[in-house]
Amino acid sequence: MAECRQALGPDALILSTRRTASGVEVTAALEPAEEPVPPPPPPVAAPGAPDPLGRHNLPPALRSRIGPGNAAALATALRFAEVPDAAGRPLALVGPPGAGKTLTCAKLATRLVLQGQAPFVVTADSQRAGAMEQIAAFTRVLGIPLALAGTGAQLAQALTRRARGQPMLLDTAGCDPFDPAQAEQLLALLRVTEAMPLLVLPAGLDPEEAAETARAFAALGARHLLPTRLDGARRLGGVLAAALSGPLALTEAGTGPGAADGLTPLTPAWLSARLTGPARPSQEAA
Question: Where is the composition biased (Pro residues) (predicted)?
């Protein structure tokens, strides 16, 4: 039997033995090897089931970089960061007209006041009707200084009023980054103040439009993105496209009109829940 196992291997199965005139006859067999179990097929969405990312109108090329919307995939594909500290370099809120820069400036100023700081707010928006009055209403309530600086000379003068280490928020006029004259005007403002631009962009934009806008502002120095109107937006493809295409780090989001509680920190978990959560009625009907 030892010779049989040596010849056939340790898996040999001895079926029977009998003595013969010439020796011992052994009947043996080999157990068939187990066939490998094929891996389970990838899960297939039920017919008609909505694609969580598809309903947000994210372009397929960008959708493939994120995956099925889990937090780990978002953390890898996107960058997240805090709003830059305005106590060092001034923080300039930049973006297209109507993005919500002035309200975002008021929200950031309110937060600083609640933290015991007194930010210096400068508005460079001397073109939009009511812009000065809007930000002035907030600064009066907060009891913090406000300066109007529509020209380079006024900006230089405003900078002399800033105390050492005092946070400075710069509310800029709406800028079309594809217009060379407007882009150069914004660049000049950033050079004079040495401010760090924070792109403010409304949610709900067409993803391709948002991506092109983000790249244009990134060329002007923006490295961070603060999307607004996430409380009313039903599709976030524009926000993701802007962050991926800039590329820009996601900071916080405008999620309400309140100056004291209208900003929400953006994290992979928060964004994943928003992307894969139940569709709103208008999305289901779309």
Answer: 35-45
